[in-house]
Amino acid sequence: MSRKRTGLTRLSRYLTGRRLLVAGLVAVATGSAGAQSGGWLLVRAAIDDGIGQGDRHTLTVVVAAYLALNALGWICQWVLIRGLAVIGQGIVMGLRRDLFDHLTSLSLRYFSEQRAGWIIARVTSDVDAISDALSQGLPTLVSNIVLLPTTVIVLFVVDWRLGLVAMVILPPALLLSRWFQRKSAVAQLDVRNRIAAVTAQVAESVSGMAIVQAFNRERQFQGQFDELNAENRTSNIYAQQLFSVFFPSIELLGAISTCAVLVVGSRFLSEGTLTIGTLITAIYLLQLVFQPLQELSDVYGQLQSAAAAMVKITSVLDAEPEIGDRRGAVPMPPIAGAIDLDTVSFAYGRADVLHDISIHVPAGGCIALVGQTGGGKSTLAKLIARFYDPRLGSVSVDGTDLREVQLGTYRRQLGVVLQDPFLFSGTIADNVRFARPEASDEEVRETAEAIGLDRLVARLHGGLDHEVREGGSGLSAGERQLISIARALLADPRILILDEATSNIDRPTELLIERALDRLLHGRSSVIIAHRLATVRRADEVLVVERGRIVQRGAPSDLLTVDGPFRRLAGSRHLPQPRPKPRGRSRRTPSSA
Asked: Structure pTM?
């Protein structure tokens, strides 16, 4: 229940600036309810005073008033539905925007612990459930919440005796509603969980379809999907079974109440203490009493589904980002790029994966991190990029602890080239411009020419204007990597992280990328993660990382002369001999970078 209140409270925040409109719509809903129930008072007058007395003038006047009142009710309903649609969709837009913004602020740990499909379900199907409730259920809810008490009041005004008879069924109706509320809330939450599991399975299967087909796992994945689908069906059937009990029961109670009013009313009619117009009006007013109950029952499923969806959304919105700006954080000024890790320890869970790491990279310097997979190389790079904060120790740039500066102002001076770069839908030029959206077409072309990307994509239709499919499918690994390098070069970062930038690339393309890296690394502080050791020759210092510790460090040429982990890695991976630095030239020229 507390989570429901939290969800409702969170939704109510989106009414800021719309409260006057809400108050106006409540007044409109009251007018609509008054028109519907008050019209039956005119029907009673038409029957008793017009038809019963043979007074055609009275009948004509009452009928005209009845039509005018219904026209007013129609206008009120029109205004109410449109107004609530504006409010409801405004809430949905704000909720979806805030949910997406919050997701982009969460730390990488959150995404590593949650399945992508589960997160997608929060932004899509769960928000859609709330949208359906607000756009379809909200008008029904507001109209009937106002109509129900209004009609009861009018029924007692018509004849308080018949009103009391009709209300006999109210206690069992309330008990039934309470039972349904408890059971349905649990059932709808289970439904949301089941559909989220189905969505997650579909998303994972689509993303990994190449692997699924390559290993002939289609039947196994189909079996998993069938199992989840069957559980989803069972959950939905149970929820519908609750409705199958509740809805007919409400209708049955309405029928019992109507019969009671007919029996008692016929007796009053025979005694002369009740007119036929009053009895007919009471019967129809009674229908208006149960109409809101039935319609509220119909919409209750939507509301319960939306409430369950809001619980799931709230669980995302309540997740706190681990990495963010501390209170008092200052903007990061333009940096020179000196990087220092001071006795850093870090753990993803309970056990440390990095132990007392200390590294110094001078401004414009270049280090290479090498070692077996799982040793901690990528974790070190993520700490430098401040995707994580160390458990112990500090990571500093130009002598400033990264935890003391505004994250965005630091990240804007940071570039990352990943082993498997992600490309977005759009043109190649759009993907190059991603790191600096304000860059001109000329700047994009110059960047592409500087690293040879223009020649590589010349074979593609449109060249730099070639349309890229999601994830870069249709492009080779080398083409995707060159686009990623161009993106980093256009951003002109002061610190650059290369994570396996030449892995899984054919030799001719690797040579092209090597030349592009020469241009990219020039004049920047660089951290190279090398698994196949193909780019280590550029580094001023090599750090061999094993089991979260630096076990060897030194210049590549020096490490090759002594027996140790680096030499063994070089022997097994065919490490190219480091090029001697030309005499009389700056260390950071493009040819020697």
From this structure: 0.68
